[in-house]
Design a protein that fits this description.
With 432 residues, the protein is mainly beta. The protein is 7% helix and 38% strand. It contains 1 helix and 26 strands.
Length: 432
Amino acid sequence: MEHTTNSLPEVSEYDQDDPNSRHKHSQHAQQDYASPSSHRNRKSICGLPVTGGFIALVSAILVIIILAAVLGGILGSRRSHSEITGNGGPSNSSSSNSSSPGETNRPGSAQIGTGVVAIQLGSDNSNLLTYVQNPLNQIVEGIWDPGNDSAMTLGSSTRSIIATDAKQDSPIVALSYTRNATGLLTRHVIYIDDNNYLQDVLTDSHSNNQWSNGGLGATKTQTVGSSSAALAACWGDFIQAPGQGIRLYYGAASDNVVQEMGTDTSNVTWDWQYYDNWNDMDTQAGVVCNAHDPIVELFYVNSTTSNLQQAWFEYDTGPDALWEWQYGPEYQQSNPPLAADTSVAVSFDGNNTDTLTFQLQNGTVQAVTATVNYNATRFAGAWPVAAAIPASKLANWWAGNDTVFFYQDSNADIMASGWADGQETFNTSVSF
């Protein structure tokens, strides 16, 4: 098998003859989503002689100062309590863009190294959901309505603190789907807590923005921690009725492998199960999954070759269904190579093209497209997007004609860069 190595901005296209023979992973029995098997003095005298009148004036001023301090402390304490609900877990605090400077959820405030998520609110909704971690390590959801933003500032019209127990720099993943068990549009966020355990919170269209714990915390699943970008999840509505579920991938603390978990979202209760794991996935780098019904597709950094690797699993009941992980091509990047702790992000155009981003050793965020066709997937067309902070978390969003790339710049601002037909159409900092 021959690989070609291309530097930017050349195009790399190649097939792979037998990519499956050199990948090592432990495989549990896989079933469809409907039935699964088993983680920032100078003094002055005011022209008055030092007399009884002067002393009275000073006393009055001191009384005013003391009263102001006491009242300020009480009011400040009340405001802090209303903004942060409890010591951890889900929070239901929300605000509009009228937040004043100094508040924990003021617009534009993000933790350095924050996880970044950008997803569409349901399949038939144009609203954009964004998730970041603020300087107090709270996870903040922003809902952007394009109808209120003709200038494309991507400023969120609604912001909510949805979790307060996330570990600093935790990767964040989010899903939006209509859950068969309830028939409701659901928002589901997964992150890593202070003890390196996986946690999730969710809400739906009937919950009035009230977030509750999902079932992940109860599994006591420990990750390698927030130093790793290896956290990904995708939801699929597959051909087997009701055939609906989540697949989750994370860096496992126990074996230094990337572990797969799954659950059925057609049931009212959560029943997370462990499935496959891989020892050729770099647990310090990113992994991302994408559902192209009836397949789940993974992109990750191969720990042996340090290249971007594709893998896929077909959930099908036909006579030719393989029901095991298959491996497509690698994307070879050199001069400069991939950063050792790169994040990986993906967006899908709804047809057959993925757009991926990752970070290079010089800090550049690079994009590449991949035409999805099972083992015949082909990478083509790479280009530099922007410079980001080291180990910046990344997110992609397909916006119809544009692909929007999210990253954190040297000012710690979350930036959105829109691209169409090989040209940047806008670049703006995002308010949260």
